[in-house]
Amino acid sequence: MKKNIKDLDYKEVTALINELGEKEYRAKQLFIWLYEKKITCFSEMTNFSKELRSRFDEMFVVSPLVLEDRQISGIDGTEKFLFRTLDNHFIESVLIRSDGNDEGRLTICISSQVGCPMGCKFCETAKIGFKRNLSTGEILDQICHVRRITGLSNNNIVFMGMGEPFMNYDNVLKAADIMNYTFGFHLSVRKITISTCGIMPAIERFIDEKRPYNMALSLNDTEPEKRLIFMPVEKKYPFKSIASMLNNKFPVSRNRLTIEYIMRKDNISTEDARRLKKMFKYARIKLNLIPLNSGNHELPIPDKSEIEAFVNELEIMNVPVTIRKSMGSDISGACGQLSGKKYKLNNSSREQQC
Ligand code: SAH
Questions:
Q1: Is 92 an annotated catalytic residue?
Q2: 3-state SS of the chain: helix, strand, coil percent to 5?
């Protein structure tokens, strides 16, 4: 079977180029073809010899994902893309346009796994169960497709789609490094955020390896017993241990750590606000409050005045807070709504492969 060229980083491509007896500058050229020009066939690489192009074609596939469907939100222009992998699994990515608060921000929310093993009760992806990790190339190809199809260049990436990125650490971090190359997407490290439900050893590894990307922790509760009801990961990696590790290790000079917190009716009391403040005494955090999106759950959604009271409490205690806007909910593209389901098979949205 052919390998996926997008699984390779710069070092690996350079070794390949040397093996093929070509000059080293070809490596950078290849990355530019793949990620800047977003080619779909090696034959498009017109500054490579015909022989070299057909060598690549014999050895590699350019694109490990096929676009199956594209939906656009009538409310806010958010776009959801359904992709099929070469072994016939389905994954989704979401393009989120800037809103009034976030001038000029264009975010692609990407998936890191087919399904998810973590079993969070409020999340649609969890219901699929876990199929497999995505390869580095499959992670990167989501961005190639979205950019090519829309003609837009995103300046922000969040690993908040399907899957738990820190259960696929190596492929995710390799993809983030490739996103950062100047010859390719050239995305700033500050604009790449990896979100985790709290895989403690991977968080420690991420910090110890001094990875420069933003990290977001999905906390969602301030009491262990309650969190355990919604997030089974709490059993193996209790958030209190994670918080004390972060208080010890999360260096002051780093970007602030984002704490994601889904607001339910029963987790936004004054006590919750106080516990949040106390929990992260030494780690610099910013709190991102997420309105609970609907799905296959019956969890109670708080009303506006309850949310305002919670935000007010946090602000008095000087905890930096932002509220995430739910985008793309009419196309099931908001947080926790991705299921990789084929809602319809719209042949016209399928792309031609070469
Ligand atoms: N597995 C990773 C990334 C995917 S989920 C993680 O857990 O962080 C991305 C974010 O969406 C998480 O913060 C998660 O808590 C949130 N989320 C999941 N289901 C949701 C729902 N129904 N409503 C609002 N946010 C949800």
A1: yes
A2: 40, 20, 45
CA of 107: how far to CAs of 120, 152, 154, 173, 281, in Å? Answer: 24, 10, 6, 18, 31
Give the Cβ contact number of residue 232 at 10 Å: 16
Domain boundaries along the sequence of the chain: 3-61, 65-346
Q: Given the CA of residue 293, which atom of ligand 1 is nearest to it?
A: 23
Nearest atom, ligand 1, residue 299 CA: 22
**Radius of gyration of the chain from its Cα atoms, rounded to whole angstroms:** 21
Residues with CB under 6 A from ligand 1: 122-123, 160, 164, 195-197, 218, 220, 260, 262, 290, 292-293, 295, 335-336
**Distance (Å) from CA 262 to ligand 1 centroid:** 8
Spacing, Cα 10 to ligand 1 middle (Å): 32
Tens digits of pLDDT across the chain (354 residues): 899 999 999 999 999 999 999 999 999 999 999 999 999 999 999 999 999 999 999 999 999 999 999 999 999 999 999 999 999 999 999 999 975 455 578 999 999 999 999 999 999 999 999 999 999 999 999 999 999 999 999 899 999 999 999 999 999 999 999 999 999 999 999 999 999 999 999 999 999 999 999 999 999 999 999 999 999 999 999 999 999 999 998 766 667 899 999 999 999 999 999 999 999 988 889 999 999 988 878 888 999 999 999 999 999 999 999 999 889 989 999 999 998 886 544 444 556 566
- Ligand 1: distance of its center to the CA of 109 in Å? 12
Q: Among this protein's residues, is 315 annotated catalytic?
A: no
Ligand 1 atom, smallest distance to 124 CA: 19
| Range 3-61: architecture per CATH | Orthogonal Bundle (1.10)
Q: How far apart are CA 213 and CA 205, in angstroms?
A: 13
Residue of 92, 124, 234, 260 marked catalytic: 92
CATH superfamily of 65-346: Aldolase class I (3.20.20.70)
